[in-house]
From TrEMBL:
Cellular component, GO annotation: mitochondrion
Family: Belongs to the carbon-nitrogen hydrolase superfamily. NIT1/NIT2 family.
Source lineage: Eukaryota, Fungi, Dikarya, Ascomycota, Saccharomycotina
Gene3D superfamilies for the chain: Carbon-nitrogen hydrolase
Location of the CN hydrolase domain: 9-260
One BP annotation, GO: glutamine metabolic process
Keywords assigned by UniProt, alphabetized: Hydrolase
PANTHER family: NITRILASE-RELATED, OMEGA-AMIDASE NIT2
Protein name: CN hydrolase domain-containing protein
Gene Ontology molecular-function annotations: omega-amidase activity
Length: 286
């Protein structure tokens, strides 16, 4: 039986320093770290960047930094060139996207294949609108609109599912991608120092164990001078729920090797993918 992951796969998650006001400097910094990843680990095949890696993570800034997604827009062109130059699949974190037909702004992840082709986008579907007393208040929906799709993409290694940050709290997206055969859920993210310690590891491990897939969460590094303090701790979790790579709080790259055997062995040992009782939950997607 062939695996949902076609080969062993080296991935790199770049926990970039929090973005600065200069968008092109943020892009250059991403390029520098992608190059470093490929020098350190030349067999890296997938590289992941954080949520809003080239714009401030602030509701009043999204429109100013937004781009229409076309082959010539600044970030698309830049990331496409990096993906082809380094022969990698690049999960280009997320950027604020302007849809010119509606004038709406989305928080959108952009994904390139190793030839630099934009193979898919995911608009954050669940907006981070929370109000935790003495904790954090944030309302993305003040300026952002939510995407309307669950996203699963084909790569030459198998399928991947995409979500952005708060999306990982909704198990349905991961479940849908896993049912379509995804070997991993990838979440460009930017949790904070309030909800990060509560739920970051738990959610990453839960989505992995629920679906017996890999999960990858890529955060910006913590900046204690910023109004939004990202949690850091970028993670890779295996299908058994073990953390196989974890960053600290500063700027760094973490690497992991995904292994089809890990998926297959664990799925054989604990065969939940074959034991589901759709007869008693018929309204759940098979
Ligand atoms: O779910 C959380 O606790 C954090 C989510 C978040 O920071 C985001 O969606 O950007």
């Amino acid at each position: 039986m062939s695996s949902i992951l076609s080969q062993k796969l080296k991935v790199a998650l770049i926990q970039l320093a929090g973005s600065k006001p200069d968008k092109s400097a943020n892009l250059q910094r991403a390029a520098k770290f992608i190059e470093k990843a490929l020098i350190d680990q030349p067999d890296t095949k997938i590289v992941v960047l954080p949520e809003c890696f080239n714009s401030p993570y602030a509701v009043d800034k999204f429109r100013e930094y937004s781009e229409i997604i076309t082959p010539d827009s600044m970030s698309i062109k830049f990331l496409s060139n990096l993906a082809s130059k380094f022969n990698i699949y690049l999960i280009g974190g997320s950027i604020p996207e302007l849809d010119p037909s509606t004038d709406k702004i989305y928080n959108t992840s952009i994904v390139f294949d190793n030839r630099g082709k934009l193979i898919g986008t995911h608009r954050k579907a669940h907006l981070f609108d929370v109000d935790i007393p003495n904790g954090i208040t944030f309302k993305e929906s003040e300026t952002l609109s939510s995407g309307d799709n669950a996203t699963t993409l084909d790569t030459k290694f198998g399928k991947i599912g995409l979500g952005i940050c708060y999306d990982m709290r909704f198990p349905e997206l991961a479940m849908l991608s896993a049912r379509k055969g995804a070997f991993a859920m990838i979440y460009p993210s930017a949790f904070n120092t309030v909800t990060g310690p509560m739920h970051w590891h738990l959610l990453a491990r839960s989505r992995a164990v629920d679906n017996q897939i890999y999960t990858m969460l890529c955060s910006p590094a913590r900046d204690n001078n910023s109004s939004y303090k990202a949690y850091g701790h970028s993670l890779v979790v295996n299908p058994r729920g073990d953390i196989i790579a974890e960053a600290g709080e500063g700027e760094e790259i973490i690497y992991a090797e995904l292994d089809p055997n890990e998926i297959d062995t664990f799925r054989q040992g604990v065969p939940v993918t074959k034991q589901r009782r759709f007869d008693i939950y018929p309204d759940v997607n098979k």
